[in-house]
Every structure is written in structure tokens, then in C-alpha cells.
Amino acid sequence: MPDIYIPIVGKDSSNGTPIPPGSSRIVIDPLTRIEGHLRIEANVEAGKVTDAWSASTMFRGIETILKGRDPREAWLFTQRICGVCTTVHAISSVRAVEDALGITIPDNARLVRNLLEAAQFVQDHVIHFFHLHALDWVDVVSALGADPAQTSALARSISPWPNSSPEYFSGVRSRLQGLVDSGQLSLFANGYWGHPAYILPAEGNLLAVAHYLEALDWQREFIKFHALLGGKNPHPQTYLVGGMAIPVNPAGNRAINPQVIAQLRGLISMATDFVTQVYIPDLKLIASFYKDWANYGAGVGNFLSYGDFPSSGNDPNSYWLPRGVIFDGNIGVPSQPLDQQQIKEFVTRSWYSYSAGDSNGLHPSVGETQPTYTGPQPPYDNLNVDGKYSWLKAPRYNGNPMEVGPLARMLVAYTNGHERVRALVNEMLGALGLGPEALISTLGRVAARGIETSLVVEQMGTWVDQLEANMNSGNLAIHNGALWDPSTWPATASGWGTTEAPRGALGHWVNIANGKIENYQTVVATTWNGSPRDAAGLPGPFEAALIGTPIADPARPVEILRTIHAFDPCMACSVHLVDARGKPLGIGVTVH
Amino acid sequence: MIPADYPNSKVVLGLGNLLLGDEGFGIHAIQYLQVRGSEQFPVEWVDGGVLGLNLLPLVEECSHLLVLDAVDAGQAGGALVEMAKDEIPLYNGMKMSEHQVGFQEVLAVARFRGRYPTYLHMIGVQSVNLSPGTQLSPAVMAALPAVYQRATIILKGWFT
User: Fold this and answer.
1) How many angstroms separate the CA atoms of A557 and B35, rounded?
2) Model's pTM, two decimal places?
3) 3-state secondary structure at position A282
4) What is the ipTM, given to two decimal places?
């Protein structure tokens, strides 16, 4: 098994691509865990990134497991692909099968799916900001030097959130001090604390650390939203091809009833308070110090959104967040319609081979996953980035690398005149004193995620209202079983199902033959964003976004983390692994 | 999710990715143990998958936690690797991993917040094959009775 746990920050290139004179090569491996592990190699010259390569160094071919299975149970497997994306993989899967078989869903199923997915957006975005991304901007150790009274004054100047007394911040500081005094920073260990790129004042850092901890309490409560609609098991259990498997019954006990409606409203209210009084004020505060980052990380400038949250059935034309594509950063005109036939995956620079040759892309419906590893045997210093160098394929739209995620969604909605999106975008830009051009940047991605959270949390109540209205009018249907029996299916059928996952466009393609899955392909958000170069040599969004990034200290490249984490690469796939390396057990326990 | 006020604070938690061969050991194990042990032991049996921070409420709200997971300890396939509370590394000591929400980070967060389980024990099994598939390799499958035996001893200790 490759030793995937050793981070390498070095300059050597003993078996990789030659590094140009005057440059140094930074390698970060692993950067995050996503379908395997994300590795970034970057050339740095005169304090700036001049070129970069994004590579996934662990193969996963999960689609092969689905061949020959009943398409109605595919979602049970796909929701296991990733621990943070359970809901969105389930929705994409049932939608793909529904599309293949021409199944329509009742209105209540639409609403419950919208609510489950919206809750996932809100939870994931808050967790991403405070737990996966904030430490790229917030210096935990600096927080120890904060004055609690001044922190309190700062907190009260930006928000009415009640936990804001000097005593409160003093307590948080003491807890942090205790951690430092214990000699190990535990979960805050090995950060780049004290790095000159951290410019928040100590009080801002303490405020953010306090909210890092509070967000965990908030999350503990908010995830009950999924339990109410998805069942008690930690994994959602209520998806079903043709609708949902949770009854709507005003008199039912284990059903969506008036009590559940009230609980949903309570959780939405709690989430609204946290988003508007903690997340957004903190985001604006931090962003106000890091406005420079509107100049970095522009990336490919092309954006793709499948759109989501139908207002009617699963009609893409009714999506509340619209579907569309944008090219060359042109946000002055409406986005163009999306034609899924234009999606092709390339393996020219990926460790796969296609039966018809590696220079042409394949549409996911005829996708092939034939691994062909040509990379170096570990341990190695550098990849040969002139050849194949990643386990990620390179999805392209009409030949173009496309960015997906909150920024793509907000821009597609913005250019289509979505009134609420335009209002929230303009409000955020006004607060930061920036123009719309600032959106296409690392800072813009952070801001877009916050804008989207505000947007979604305030919309959720509308769907609860509609669910309640249906219930009160006796419209209780939540599953369409007309085509449940495989004997009603055609001999062959194919379909695609999409969602917008919190981190971006997610597509599943299914071919069904004689009642069984014949082929199944997924194209996930981080494959779009983290893709390697393609047949034309065009870099993927991560790679393009890193070019021009300033690097103050190549041995501590926090700036690279800022730009990559701003995309929210998916990381929980390998979440359960225990690494006991170096611990006094007498054995080198590394956990894959 | 487990409700915040659920009555039982003793939890057996299986972790792993069901789709990656032996990485799904913890999930297979929880099913194996629950079938055999649920009458004897009034504990909560939880298939935690790879849910990461979503498991924090569960960890913070239990007094007793037994974790079942796949490990790579460089041992023969199917070998048991156990860690008692203080032996479980809370942090794996590599750069950048403060951004990775592994189960160890879940434990570290719980500890930092002062809500660490009083009793914590992990039973790991050396994995052999992590390639895509929903079956355990024969050596790991064969370890299930031994895991059950060890788990039984741990659980008996909880109830005496």
C-alpha cells in the first residue's frame, strides 16, 4: 500500500518532471482526502506560483460494484461513496433511475427532497467555513494574545449574537491556553501559526475560535433535521425510486405530521439565527481583512451548474437555482443553456486507458474505467506531470474545463436575473466595497458560499409551508409506485440524474438492461474542479486557480491551502481511518 | 441521526466504507455483533459509515464507546489490533490534517470540548484488500468470531 500519510514539502525532483531553473517545486500530499488523496505540485518562482498540477493518488472504481444490481437499490450503495455527501448521491441516483424509466414523483416527495438537500447545504457550508476553511485565515495561536473585552466589543459591533461578553471570550481563551500549556495543540497542531499571511487581529482570531466551537453545538442540533425526514439511522433511509418512503399523515405517529412540521420550523429558525448572526458577520469580518484575495484564484473562468430545487416535479425548467453554463467570466449576459451531451471525460493525462484511444473524450453514458497506472512507484518525490499524473479523469464541457460549486450556482442565478441572489450578492459586495468582478476569485468563492447559505436557509420555510398546505388539503401522496415492478419496464433504458451537491454539480448516469444495471457512472463535483489537464493540455480549475498565488514561505504554503480549500474539495471519504504511526504500541499502525 | 436525548449512553460504533472491501470491516462487524449480542447487551449498535463530524453528537453523548474499524498495522491479514482509551491517537501528527475530518479529529474535538466518553475502546482488524467490492476478504471475515469474543469481554465489563 502506498504510504499516503507522509506530507512532503520539498524541492527535489529525482524522478519527476524537470523543474525550470530559478523555480522551486512545492508538493503538498495529502492536501485533503477526496476519493483518495489530493496532491498538489506547484512551481514557485519569485514568490508566486507559476504552474500547478492537481493529482488524486488513490484509485476508486466504485461504479463497478453496481453492475448487475437492481437499479432501485443503487442509491443505497451510492450514498456510501462519501460520508458528507450521502443525501446528494442518493438523490442523484433515484433521479437517474426515474429519468431512465420515465417515473414522475408526487409533490410531497419533491418538497421533502428539496428540504433534505437544503439542510445539507446549510450544514455543510457552515461546517466548511468554520471547520475546514477558517483555519486558513484564522491564526489559532494568535487568539491567545486577544483581549477579551476588546473581543467582546468587536463581536457586539458586528452582531447581536448573545454569546459576546468579555467573560465568555475569556473562558474560550483559557480553554485554548490550557490546550497550549498541555504541550499538544491536538486538533490545532501543525498549523502554520505565526505565518505572515495571517493578518487578522488577535481579537478577530479569538472570535473565530469561539465560533468554531459554537458551530459544533449548532450542528449537533441542526442535524436533527435529517433525522426528522431521513429516519433515525445516521444514513438517510427514506429515499425511494418514485418518491420518498416517509408517510405524510396528519394523524400518523411515525409520519410527517403537524408536530414534525413544527420541529422543522424550529430548526430552520435556529439555523437562520446562526447563519445571520454568526456565519455571515464572521465571513464579512474576515473577508474585510483579506480583500487581496479577490485578486487571486480566478481559475478557468468557466462555470457549470446543473441547477436544483425543482418547483414542479423534477422539471429542470422549474429549478429554483437555475441550470446553465458561463464562459470566459462573462457575467454580464445570461448564462447559456446546458446540453449534457457536451459533457465528455478525458483520460489523456489520467491513469486510465480508453479502448478507442486516449485522445478523445467519452460521454459518461458510455464511460469506461480501465485503470492504467504509469506513475512512479512510491516513495517518490515528484510525479511526471508531462504525462499521466492523476486518478481523476478530466471532465470537460464542449472541451472546456468548468468550475462547479456555490460560485458557479450563484453566478448562473445572478446572470439569469434571480432577484434574491442579485440582492444578496450586491449586499455582500457592498459590505466589502468590491465590484462584481471580485466574485471570480478565491475570496469570491468564500463569499458565494455564504451568500448561498443565506439564500437557502431563508427559502426552506417556503417548502415547509407547501408541505403543510398539501397535508392540510388531504394531498398525502409521497410515492408513485406505478412503475415499481420491473415487469413494467422496457428491455433497455438509460437516464441521468443530477443534483447540486454543496460542493458542486453531481451527475449519475445509468443504463438498465432486463431489469438490472448494465453500466453506472458518476461525475462528482471535485472531479470537475480537481481535474488534471486534458487532451488539449488545458488545466483544471484548481490548477488554473493556483497560478499567480503569492507564496511567502515555500515550506509553509498556507496560500495554496486557501485557494484549494475555497473550492471545498470533498474530504470525508476516508474518514474512519485511524493512524497510530509513531505511537508507543510497538507496531507501526497506519491506517489506510 | 441519534436523537440528543436518546436513553442509552453505551454505544458500539462500526466505521468504514462499505464499498471498499475490507475498509467496510466495521460495518460488517456491527451487523455480525448486533445479531449475536443484542439480547445480552442493551447498547446502541450504530453503523457510522464514514460520516465524520456527523458522528460528533453520538461520541459526545455516550459514556461508553466501543469502536470497530479496519486498520493497517503491518500484521497478518485478520489480526486484531486493540487500543484502549489512552492509546488511541487523537491526532495523527501530519501536516494539514487539521483540515481533515477523520474520526480521530472527531475524538479530538470531543476531548477539547470536554465531552469525551468515560470508557473508550477500539477493536481493529488488519485489512488485506481495499479494492472496490462489498465483501470482506476471507482472512478478515474469519476474524469476526474473535472480534465478537473480544467485544463480549469489553461489553461485559461495561455492565459489571
Assistant:
1) 50
2) 0.91
3) helix
4) 0.83
